[in-house]
Structure prediction request, 520 residues.
Amino acid sequence: MTSSSIEAPVPAAALGERRANVAPAALQVNDSDAFPLAIKNVTKRWRKGQAAVLDNLDLALAPGTLTWVGGRNGAGKTTMLRIAAGLIEPEQGCAEVWGVSARENRLRYQALVSFLPAGDRGLYARLTVRRQLEFCARISMMPHSQVHRSVEEAIDAFDLRELADRRVDRMSMGQRQRLRIAMTFLPRPETVLLDEPLTSLDGEGTALLLQAVGQLLSRDGVVLWCSPSSEDVDLTFDTHWLIDRGRLTPL
Amino acid sequence: MSDLLTAGHAFLAVMRRDLTVYLSYRTRLVSQALTSVFSVTLFYYVSRLVHVSGFRSPNSYFGFVVVGISMVSVMYSCFSIPELLRQELVAGTFDRLLLSPFGAVRSVIAMTIFPVLYSFILAATTLALGCVLFGLHLHWSTVPLSVPAMALALLAFLPFGLLFAALTVVVKQGSVGTSWVIALLSIVGGLYFPVSLLPHWVGTAAKLQPFTAATSVLRHLLVGSSLGESPGSALAKLALFTVVLVPGSIFVLSRAISFGQRRGTIIEY
Prediction:
């Protein structure tokens, strides 16, 4: 994590030009020290004897890249993200950030990785937007001196100023999604995992998300974006993968 | 040092969150106050019926039972942690705690701060109501000593909440077990009647948990009930429970969370 402030929004066009330099080649997962996220040989079954949800899955993301993983419902996208986030553990293999797994150093891992789960959960209904963001900053172990500034910057970056003192249970689904995204980017992670991030977002909300993604990529962060289709977003991905029966296939 | 300070701020943030949520339900405070008023009133009139050898007078039983009622609220607070954790699991906010650098174990421990402080205030309010409404006579010379004794008692009780929180992580229904445990502890803890009335073997079981010792010490300090042993020895017993149970319960909670992550059930609710 860096401690600099959130930068000015990057125009989507500039984002496309910058990332055109990144080769969408398959990366060697074995050298996982070199990647802000490497998923190595991951297998996951929910029950013994059942078919694997993820089957010897490998994926490495190079710094400054935006990766899309798609697939039908139940293909394993969310399970892959949950393992990459450190929420659940695989039966075999591991996810690593710069060569470190969550099991080896949970504090460092969680400081570098941020996860936006699908759906609208993960918010305290009775807290205001500002309180929610402050809470998020605190549990992210952000130094006291940076909390206020980071919260206010997140409020501005995701156009939440008018909603800052409104309780979450009095907000629309799209506004809640904007808050969830703000909470994902607030701790200034290097690796961001997005599970169907466009849910309930309007055009303005989508543009704000894309700006945040662009800023992260410009500081060599990585984004792993999972959704059933990549066509619903005006964004150029560096690599496209399809997950089917627990295996990834490059597109 | 700065890490310690940042962690301290995170602990306070959890407490502040719980306070904010609590205050957002405005009727809760009134409802809780009315419950205390009616409980104290109920037991005041029950105490009027008590003319037995164990108590010098109805007022003596009233003092005995008001401390017991105060301890019940403390007990409920400690056992509210599994339910709070379950709400976090259902709302999906536990995932965020688990994936934060602050971590799930520290978050659950932090979740105990507000209920514990609240129960402390509630216990004091119950005693105050006993004094103001029904002339409960407190031993003011030893009342200040009851504050550190209560703090030690709370530390000794907390592991029970953490153990049930661990159970909630694993089976998602920890709160089901808490109601009968509270009822059982109310009996063996001697909250409403002296433990000496219980059969001998139950009386022995009463010594295996900290609630009996804590209630006895607090009764001694607040209303001057006889203790049957020195206050120092009763406090040492509480300290021993704390030293053994606090690290043990944190370890169990940590293993329960790891188990849920390995099995993948941590995402279920």
Observations:
- The interface with chain A takes residues 2-3, 5-7, 9-10, 12-14, 16-17, 20-21, 24-25, 91-93, 95-103, 107, 261-262, 264, 266-267 of chain B (CB under 8 Å).
- The first helix of chain B runs from residue 2 to 24.
- The radius of gyration of chain B is 19 Å.
- The mean pLDDT of chain B is 91.
